[in-house]
Amino acid sequence: MVAFWLILGLALPTAAQVNRSSHFLSRQSVDVSSQGVRCGGLDLPENAGCKQVVEWAAGGGKWDSAAGGWYKNMPTITGVNHEQGTLQDFQRLYYCSPPGDSFCGLPPCTGCSNPPCSDCFAGNQLYSSRRPGCDGNDKGVGCVPPKTALGYKGQHWPTTVIHGTQEMHIFAIGDWGGMDGSLDPPEGRKTIVAYDWGRRPGPSVFPRSRWNKMHTVQFCDHKQLVECFNTRGQAPCAPECGYVAGVDDQPQLLVANAFKARAALVDPQYILNVGDNFYWGGIEKTCGSPMDQISYPTKHQFDQIFEGVYQGSGLTNKPWFSVLGNHDWGGFKFDNGWDQQISYTWASNRWVMPAPYYKTSVVYADLGFDVDYFFLDSNFIDAMPPEEDPNHNMCSRKNNKPSASCAAADGPESVDACPGWFASLWAEQKPWVTQLMGQSKANWQIVVTHFPCGHEQDFYKSLRGLGMDLLVTGHRHDQELWLPDDHAKNHMGVTCIVTGGGGGITSEATPNPEETEDWYGEAQYGFYDLTISKSEILIESINYDGEVLLTHTVTRRGRRNLHLASSLPLLVRKNVDVHWIARPAQCSRDAQPKSSCIVMPERLGAMAIAAAGAYAVTSGFVVSQPAAQQPSEVRLRGAQAQPNSSAGFSSTMLNLAGAGTVAAGLAVSQRKRTALRAEKFAGGLVGSAGGFGEYQFDPIGLAEHYPTL
């Protein structure tokens, strides 16, 4: 039974504590079957010491996979199995024979007031625990929780170092956490059940409405879909709901099975979790719990929806780098136990969510590359004025109590302050991530957030200019892949995925593969597998059957990669000590080869690497220094130069004085007819004069930082 005590963070009972049982031996015993045995209510002051323990056991503990061992004395004490035990039964159990086989009383028992668990467990916080691998001397972010839920916002979670030279995989999943129908919520809350058979152990999916692809026509509302669940697809289930029995009624488990099967094959190093971890409204308790304690609803929901579902070969003990979704804040309210999801970071050996927004790094030590991750909270989008859209508004006046406040957790202090609080949270993240991404030296920069591709596109476009390679999102309940060249919808210039098909809530459209006209993406339920190397990320969309539906490759940084293509001289400068040659370049973007870099000519036209008189501004160039100095007259060959254009070129000669490195190379503006040193554009050129080979030129980033060129 030692494992149980460690799970709950309890010290094992000492001999002195066990001997306290003699204090209760004089109590009168009666037949356990006596109908006259009644327990004094747990709300009585004398029962305060046992209240939380008993409520957790009766509400969540009895469904734990280890409960049979914990509560094996229940039939002796109460005459019923632990799964059938009521709150009163568990109160009597804890009075007579609390879990751990330390008898505080002598069964059978007669009364249940002032149960001895307060003596047996004296001095121990039931759910306090220390993150595995930490000891009392560890005081950093990774081992000690903050005093309030936002105490670590913007901080760096300890870097993960991965060894080995095998293929490296990352899983991405979102909107995965179903309803915990077996939980008896505290605080007078209703049971989390949406349909007749939802009160059961394990996750139950939440039925939502279904619309057409443009979200202009509602095919099926929430109540209609609930009816389909009640009848399991039989009449009067509306056909337009597209309910698929065997899929819609268990999508989290189906996706989890595919998740586990693929994990057993490829052994992912960690998981990116984009939020909406517990439907409908996150952890079923009010915000404000101490950060070093886990409440019994938290423990129960994590056990039933997370710990008991995502285990197995390739998954056990793997980090889940997580963010909050709008449903984790409360869905249509803001004061549920979102802070408990943050607290769980220090009670778990794999859950990582130290704050609503934070940064971490992963180093692939033996493969010679690293990744900087930026986790953002984008839930301000569903923080509207209190009178608006009550069913999807975290700041709703209809669903929040007038007294609602999370001030104790550093959250919104009132319903009226709620929209501004979330807006401020988003506003402070923008300069934070902009600065850190600009400073990043990592091979890859990846942003993870809840709200999907398409929101805040101008902002993410600016991050793209600083080096963001991939945007990982959720919220829409399907699987989508947005490519940079899909300009009709993607204006960010970066690959973006939506992985909101984890199965905690029904999909945007029917999962019927024969009816895909109104599908948002390539799948309705599923996850992503990202295979990462120093040079590329292979993205694979996996559905709930484990089938790979779509693949795409992102090349390093997702920028244009310019490769030396030939030794044909394009530019020779006369009368200079150092002789430079601009070579024609092949341009590729996200592994899609192109013959030239004619993607944003309006931006490229303002500047050019090398300077073919600004006649070659629509082509990319790499500048290198040849071994032999061969000064000659100015000549233009190839590119898009006009015949006999040397005179025009001579007016914009490169000023090569001191051009010893790429950082001292030049960008030229034809309009100004001046030469500008490229050290002003440190983000645009990388490398040194000693060995060129391959370079990256980001004209979009340069244009945005120096629009006057």
List the helices and strands and how they pair.
Layout: H1 2-7, H2 15-19, H3 48-59, H4 67-70, H5 74-78, H6 87-96, H7 117-120, E1 160-162, E2 168-173, E3 179-180, E4 203-204, E5 210-211, E6 218-220, H8 222-231, H9 251-266, E7 270-273, H10 296-307, E8 320-322, H11 326-329, H12 338-343, E9 351-352, E10 358-364, E11 369-375, H13 418-439, E12 444-448, H14 457-466, E13 470-473, E14 479-482, E15 495-499, E16 526-532, E17 536-543, E18 548-555, E19 560-564, E20 581-589, E21 592-594, H15 601-604, E22 608-609, E23 621-624, H16 646-650, E24 666-669, E25 674-677, E26 694-696, H17 699-705
Parallel strand pairs: 1-10, 2-7, 7-8, 8-9, 11-12, 12-13, 13-15
Antiparallel strand pairs: 2-16, 3-4, 5-6, 10-11, 14-15, 16-17, 17-18, 19-20, 19-26, 20-21, 20-23, 22-24, 24-25
Helix pairs in contact: 3-6, 13-14, 14-17
Strand content: 15-25%
Question: What fraction, in percent, of the residue positions are helical?
Answer: 10-25%
Main pleated sheet: 7 strands, mixed
In spatial order, strands of the major sheet run 1-10-11-12-13-15-14
Straight-line distance between termini:
72 Å
- Shape designation: globular
